[in-house]
């Protein structure tokens, strides 16, 4: 079996065993963390940080978590709402006046978080993603594809700019700066939205599926209304220095399972972890308020959306392109995070769910 580094509670041995099995099956490298009551009961990693498999995955290796970043952006918005600085029922135009045009006058802040604003597509050049004023100006000029609030369609790239601009207008800080100062900093979490050059040596580049190369591009899994105008992001884009340096708060957060699990433990533990309170229990509960239930126009599958998180029975969370995943289980006060840089074809990728099921085995023993 592939060697696994790190530590874990004996009740949770199924988790490192599952990670070892994935490495045996051909994955390059990954990390897994399970937090219960805000403390790590699993913190393991293994494999390699490069495609050539010459650089071991280390304790402080980080990688692009893709859309797992959305849970961090959502948390920032929920913190502001809990402080009374952001009204989720307010029109976006209250905070961002230039947005209230082209049929967007009735778009509410909650619509941005729930993927119901009608602005799912990034239709500009990739390079414009690296220019915040240009990116937000483009979105402010767009016309919604549907009546805001009436339908959902996954805002894969646009959600981060939309929510991030509201945060910037309220706080005077970029989403990445707010996250660093108000969330990651107080918690001591090694997660970054916009990565400084000093961390480049720790980055494990994204590896495309075995049958693909770096031109492999993100796309909706099969929605009926997948717009042809949407710009597709390739693996090579995500591995570029330009991608790392700028803030793309829906898709370019860099971290590992430990940092993802630590941050989202705040949601599992009613707003406070290790003596640091970021928001109230009521503020956490907002995330689970169902905003939409039905077929997502972009994903082409039934979805339940809360405020910034996907809802799945009693748990919630979200995953990223390529397989990374975070799941929050508030009843058990548990968070499970799986972060990998090894992509698989989406139709054959259940790795994150395997980690969640393995973690449940440990939780049952812990609570027995």
How are the SSEs ordered, and which strands pair?
Blueprint: E1 4-8, H1 14-24, E2 29-36, E3 39-47, E4 63-64, H2 69-82, H3 109-113, H4 132-141, H5 158-171, H6 175-187, E5 192-193, H7 235-238, H8 241-245, E6 253-255, H9 257-268, E7 272-273, E8 276-277, H10 281-285, E9 292-295, E10 302-305, E11 310-312, E12 315-319, E13 325-329, E14 334-340, H11 351-367
Antiparallel strand pairs: 1-3, 2-3, 2-14, 4-6, 5-6, 7-8, 9-10, 11-12, 12-13, 13-14
Helix pairs in contact: 1-11, 2-5, 4-5
Plain-language structure description:
It is a single chain. The chain is an alpha+beta fold and 368 residues long. The chain has helices spanning 14-24, 69-82, 109-113, 132-141, 158-171, 175-187, 235-238, 241-245, 257-268, 281-285, 351-367; strands at 4-8, 29-36, 39-47, 63-64, 192-193, 253-255, 272-273, 276-277, 292-295, 302-305, 310-312, 315-319, 325-329, 334-340. It has one domain: DD-peptidase/beta-lactamase superfamily (Beta-lactamase). A 7-stranded antiparallel beta sheet has the order 1-3-2-14-13-12-11, with helices on both faces. A 3-stranded antiparallel beta sheet has the order 4-6-5. A two-stranded antiparallel sheet has the order 7-8. Helix 2 (69-82) runs parallel beside helix 5 (158-171). The longest helix has 17 residues, at 351-367. The two termini are 30 Å apart.
